[in-house]
Amino acid sequence: MSKVCELTGKGPLSGNHVSHAHNKTKRRQLPNLRKKRIWIEEESKFVTLKISTSALKTLKKKGYAKMLADGMAAV
Question: Of 2, 3, 9, whose CA–CA distance to 74 is shortest?
Answer without folding.
Answer: 9
